[in-house]
Write a structure and sequence with these properties.
This protein is of the alpha+beta class. 17% of the residues lie in helices and 39% in strands. The protein has a single domain, classed as Chorismate lyase-like (Chorismate lyase), CATH 3.40.1410.10. The protein is globular. The mean pLDDT is 91. One of its GO terms (biological process) is ubiquinone biosynthetic process. Its main location: cytoplasm. This is Probable chorismate pyruvate-lyase.
């Protein structure tokens, strides 16, 4: 997909390689928060396994959150952290609760960001306990591969239509 094929207003958000956490904090000063939906050890999807280069039987720590601005869900995020990434100081990622993952990633000098994949997604497939008015809408999302000390983790961020209201 060409950059020019991405619809406005999503394009600018999808292509930004900086910290989404910082960007949302600037947009909603004092009114940004993270709502934890779930965090558990589970098997990643086949697509996530391929992205991370892990085996079919491997479990990973999967965390799903809503990023809120003014108390409204603006972004749905899903992070997948393999066992091999959660070593040493990175073990603290198991205890983020309602702290933003981006704050840790973008403050870590050992972090590298890989490629970004972009796709449209029906909001009702997110299973994110969103208000019913989102059910029939389409949102755009991106999946980024990050590396901490050369160890992979994936982060999928879906920009909800409410971000642009």
């Amino acid at each position: 997909m060409l950059k020019s094929d991405l619809p406005e207003p999503w394009r600018e958000w999808l292509l930004d390689r900086g910290s989404l956490t910082q960007r949302l904090m600037r947009r909603y000063p004092g009114k940004f928060s993270v709502q934890l939906i779930r965090q558990q050890w589970a098997r990643p999807t086949p697509s996530e396994r391929r992205c991370l280069g892990i085996g079919q039987r491997e479990f990973a720590n999967i965390r799903e959150v809503l990023l809120l601005g003014d108390g409204v869900p603006r972004v749905f995020a899903r992070s997948v952290l393999p066992h091999s990434t959660l070593v040493g100081p990175n073990r603290c990622l198991l205890r983020l609760n309602t702290k933003p993952l981006g704050a840790y990633l973008f403050s870590n000098p050992a972090m590298e960001r890989g490629e970004i994949e972009i796709a449209p997604l029906p909001v009702n497939q997110l299973n994110a306990h969103l208000p019913s008015e989102y059910e029939e809408q389409v949102a755009w999302g991106r999946r980024s591969l990050f590396f901490l000390d050369h160890r992979p983790l994936s982060v999928c961020e879906v920009f909800l239509p409410s971000l642009f209201e």
